[in-house]
Amino acid sequence: MLVKINGEDVDIPEGSTIKDAINISNAPYSQGSLICLIKGQSELEGNINKYKIKSPKGSVIIELSDAPEAKPLVDFWKSHYSDFNGLSVRWTSNNEVAVGPVTTDFTPSKENHKYWDRDVLLSLSGFSRDATHIIFAKEDMENVYGVPEGTNNGVFAKVIGGVRTLRQLTDDDDIISVEPIIERSTVTDSSSVSELSTPLAEGNQLFTYCLVEPNVNSSKSVEQFFSVIHDNTIKVDYESNSFIGEFWLQGITKPVEEITERKRGTVTLRNSGKGKGKIYIYREDRVRVNSHTTIGKVVKGMELIDIASYGDVITIHSNPEPIKTLTKTQKEVEEELKNRGIKQERVGVTEDDAIIVEQIPNETMDIIKAGKVQTKGLNKTDLILIKMTDKAPRTRWYFDKLTGLVEKPIGTLKVYFAVQDMHIFMFAGDDREAKGILPENTPKDIVKAGSIGVTNMSRKNLGIIGIRTKDNDEFGPTAEPFDGTNIIGEVVSDLNDIHGLKENDIVYLREVNPEHIDEETLEELDTEEFPEDTDMMDESIKKALK
Q1: Assign residue 163 a region: left if phi > 0, alpha if psi is -120 to 50, beta otherwise?
Q2: N or C: which end of the chain has fewer CB within 10 A?
Q3: From CA 388, how far away is CA 385, in angstroms rounded?
Q4: Cα(291)–Cα(296) distance, integer angstroms
């Protein structure tokens, strides 16, 4: 039997389930994500009530009448609208535009009727079924049009857009196409959310993923979007009639890039205000606003966006796909980049087995535009591997933002203080980003070698990051007392590899258990009491810093 899967015809055996269809077609789908099933095209089109009529002068949009008397004409239009593709504007006057002809089975009446500006009616010109035209009223008028008997005076629609275009049409113009306008209500009234075990029938339409075309003019914002969909899924953190939202990277700031009208299917990134970093996908048209950077548009699978509810997960892909070279070797990415037409320039450590820790430029869209990328390599032993704890979510969020690990698999830190004999290495922080870091997961009896700590807001050096390379039962990794230190993780690679660090060195980090800390978790944390600053930093470190 023939079904459509993500818009493509697929022949599957009778009795196949949604799971069978996905396996047969190899359709993109992430386990547990949303699936949309529409019984058939006729059911979908049955819920459409707006159409776009394209001409060389522009488009005219009509909305079908819901009057019971107009139903025979509405039904005719829904099943025959494509018959008007390529037809001509037969005549125009001060009060009307006529397009046709087509043949119908209606019986014409000879009665005189009143019509109002923007009415759309069906006329059997000369009382002939073979000369059926659509008439667009350009003003209030009264006339005998041979309209079908008992059908709302022949009126089946109203012009709701493109009035200026309508008035510019002449009998030299043709109708390029007539297209149904798919709206969210069209999909939600026709579809259902289904399980993998649901059996399919002839003519069913199945949607398993959403495809986004990124905006080449918003490369930095697009890269944040790529970070969000790193596993080819997106979670619905908010939904309304006009959009769905994904808020995982709320608080991450990107510069203002291209701003456009927010048409249905537009994907944006909020670039300022309280919600900066949030991603929105629009179900309905909205006006342009300067706080939203346009990062792409949905080109397939809008049906999933339409039916999604809060908490749903949607499989999502992009075309082109992001360029991800970090954590791979120089040799591994060579063939990948070549296949995409991208020239690779090796920098840093250039040997085949060197681990790539930076790509320059970082943004996929800029790489594609330039047609080349520098891949900076590092010896594997120079990459610091860390394991993070989930017991200090607020501090970990700060750490991930500061290092870049929130968006990339490899982060960086700049050495602020390094004295091997003191068994402590400290890294520059950001006191603005560190505001609000309350004490959490503070050590009790001892700080083990390899522990990673952050100075909390009970101390002056708020936000400083440190690593201890030897056990200490008095001071944490940033040389602060235990109550001024939040432990966020540990170094799991060889500590000897960091002993050679000196001030202003850049170190590269990779998490071995990357799990995301979401904003909801941070908001749920209770405000804790914390001790006042007693300036009890390890005296030996304090002297060294001076």
Answers
A1: alpha
A2: C
A3: 10
A4: 15
Reading the block at residue 268, the tokens are 């944006």
> What's phi and psi for 396, nearest 5 deg?
-65, -40
- Residue 396 to residues 12, 402, 413, 444, 485, Cα–Cα distance (Å): 49, 10, 14, 19, 13
For residue 521, the model assigns a pLDDT of 45
Q: How far apart are CA 326 and CA 284, in angstroms?
A: 37
CA 284/CA 182 separation, integer angstroms: 10
HSE, side-chain direction, 13 A CA sphere, residue 498 = 32
DSSP three-state, residue 56:
coil
How far CA 473 is from CA of 133, 248, 370, in Å, comes to 91, 37, 53
CB atoms inside a 10 Å sphere around CB 158: 16
Could you tell me if 18 and 11 are in contact, meaning their C-beta atoms sit under 8 angstroms apart? no
Identify the residue whose tokens are 């008992």.
150
Look up residue 327 and give its amino acid. T
Residue 265 token pair: 């299917």
The phi, psi pair for 145, rounded to 5°, reads -115, 5
Q: Is the peptide bond before 320 cis (omega within 30 degrees of 0)?
A: yes
Helices (H), 202-329: 219-228, 302-307
**Tens-digit pLDDT profile for residues 306-341:** 999 999 999 999 999 999 999 999 999 999 999 999
Helix (H) or strand (E) holding 545: helix 539-545
What is the structure's pLDDT at 514? 64
What are the tens digits of pLDDT across the range 426-454?
A: 999 998 899 889 999 999 999 999 999 99
Which regions of the chain are under pLDDT 70?
Answer: 40-43, 186, 188-190, 192, 514-546
Tell me the Cα Rg of the chain: 32
- Sign of the torsion angle spanned by Cα atoms 63, 66, 68, 69: negative
Confidence at residue 539, expressed as pLDDT on a 0 to 100 scale: 56
